[in-house]
Amino acid sequence: MTDSIADFLTRLRNAIAAKHRVVEIPASNLKKEICKILFEKGYIMNYKFIDDGPQGTIKVALKYDPVNHVSAIKSLTRVSTPGLRKYVGYKDMPRVLNGLGIAILSTSRGVMTDKEAAAQKVGGEVLCYIY
Fold first, then answer.
1. Do the beta carbons of residue 64 and residue 73 sit within 8 Å?
2. Phi, psi of 53 (to 5 degrees)
3. How far apart are CA 121 and CA 117, in angstroms?
4. Fewer CB near the terminus (10 Å): N or C of the chain?
């Protein structure tokens, strides 16, 4: 697999389309950090790391509206790919859905959202857009 982040986002996208409650994803440290951000921002209900085998898995509990059964995540878009990396400085942070969504960045100070990176005045690689 060449792009594990795109695979992670596609598994989430497919689980949301199929109205699954839980999705299992092969683990990595970067995926754990992305799950942590999604949980803190309220896009998923919970996540749990299961250490089985050499890699482990992450179980992600998806969040839905109890009345309409609409997912909290409307769109997951991969921005930087292995073939074309996208980097931004802190002055050029992308605005996702005019500030309503989040952009997840991989910076020298770790994985964080666009607003946190701008506040810390640090740029990095734009991994994905979520709203």
1. no
2. 80, -165
3. 6
4. N
Task: Give the pLDDT confidence of 30-89 residue by residue, as tens digits.
Answer: 999 999 999 999 999 999 999 988 889 999 999 999 999 999 999 999 999 999 999 999
Rounded-to-integer distance, Cα 103 and Cα 117, Å: 10
Contact 48, 35 (CB under 8 A): no
**Token reading at 94:** 């992308």
The token duo for 17 is 């389309």
- What's the predicted TM-score (pTM) here? 0.92
Q: What is the DSSP string of 82-115?
A: SSS--EE-GGG---GGGGTSEEEEEETTEEEEHH
